[in-house]
Amino acid sequence: MEVDKGKGEAEETRKVAEADRDTVTLKSSDGKLFEVSKEAAARLSTVLAGMIAGGSIDDNGTDLKQIGSEALENVVDYCNKHANSIPSAALISSSISFNTAPFKEPEEWERKFVDRLSHDALFDLVEAANFLGMERLLDVTCHKISEMMKGKSPDQIREVFNIKNDYTKEELEEIRQELAWAFYDD
Amino acid sequence: MSIRSSSAPPPPASGWAALPRDVLWSIFTALGQREVLSGAGLVCAAWRDFARREPVIWRRIDLTTPEDDVVEEDGSDDDETNIIICKMEEVPSSKGSSRWKAMTLTAIDRSAGQCEAFWGRADDEVLLHLADRFFSLLNESFLFYIDNSRRASSMKSLRVTSYSYDVSSKVFAQVIKKFPLLEELELVLKPQQPSTNSWAELFQSTCEACIHLHHFKVRCARSERHHLDEERSSTTFSIPIMHGLRSLELCGGSFTKNVVMKIVDKCPSLESLNITNLPINRWDDQMRYKCYKIKDVRLPSKCYAYDSDDDMDDMS
Question: Sorted alphabetically, which PROSITE patterns does this protein's record hold (chain B) (predicted)?
Answer without folding.
Answer: FBOX
